[in-house]
Amino acid sequence: METQDFLSGCWHAASFRVRYQESDQMGVVYHSNYLNWFEIGRTEMLRELGFTYLDLEKKGLLLPVLSAELKFKRSAKYDDTVTVYTRITSYTPLRLVFEYEVRRAGASGSGLDGSESVPQGFKSSADGELLVSGYTGHAWVNREFAPVRLDRTLPEIYGGIRNALREERGTI
Predict the structure, then answer these.
(1) pLDDT higher at 128 or 117
(2) Count of the separate structural domains present in the chain
(3) Could you tell me the residue range of the domain that residue 42 belongs to?
(4) Which residues are known catalytic residues?
(5) What whole-number distance in Å separates Cα of residue 80 and Cα of residue 78?
(6) How many other CB atoms are there within 10 angstroms of residue 141's CB atom?
(7) Which pTM does this prediction carry?
(8) Mean per-residue pLDDT over the chain, rounded
(9) pLDDT tens digits for 20-72?
(10) 3-class SS at 56?
């Protein structure tokens, strides 16, 4: 089993602009959209580590959400640039827990203008005004939703994610 020290490293950052359909008439982001943003954070983090959900599904592996918690501090608003910071805080052959922070990148209307590339990748700290924090817990399952031990079922995926995390954190 992996240790907390191993997993308490860098955040993966995925930035984007809040879209109109994500906000209400007052321009405030509707609360359920943060769970969608958490999903963006974790899928982009796994992609950066070299594993897409599509790749995992082709191998018969699924990663459903078992639990989720969100703590709201402030509201994101229409046209804000936000960054979803994601990191893995628990990684075992059976389960995986992602931690998230959604932060405002700057004042409303500033930041990405569509012509700039979206800043993504691993960072040692999370920057910006904290809006929402939370986590999601997941289990490795097969297509029949039966739990699987990733280290036995697909050891190359288990080791690949573990090694990629170590490499990103600079620990071996």
Answers:
(1) 128
(2) 1
(3) 4-169
(4) 24
(5) 6
(6) 17
(7) 0.83
(8) 85
(9) 999 999 999 999 999 999 999 999 999 988 889 999 999 999 999 999 999 99
(10) helix
With a CB cutoff of 8 Å and minimum separation 6, the contacts of 32 are: none
Q: How far is CA 22 from CA 28, 86, 133, in A?
A: 8, 20, 18
Summarize pLDDT for 120-135 with one digit per residue, the tens: 677 667 789 999 999 9
Residue recorded with tokens 């924090």:
133
Say how far apart CA 69 and CA 6 lie, in whole Å: 23
Using CA atoms, how far residue 31 sits from 2, 17, 39, 128, in Å, is 33, 16, 14, 19
What is the Cα–Cα distance from 29 to 19, expressed in whole angstroms?
9
Q: Kindly report the number of other CB atoms within 10 A of residue 115's CB atom.
A: 5
Closest C-alpha to 67, from 105, 107, 98: 98
Pull the structure tokens for residue 104. 């405002």
Residue that the structure tokens 């974790």 belong to: 42
| Domain of residue 93, CATH code | 3.10.129.10
Find, among 36, 27, 50, 62, the residue nearest to 134 by Cα.
Answer: 36
- The DSSP H or E segment spanning 87 is strand 81-91
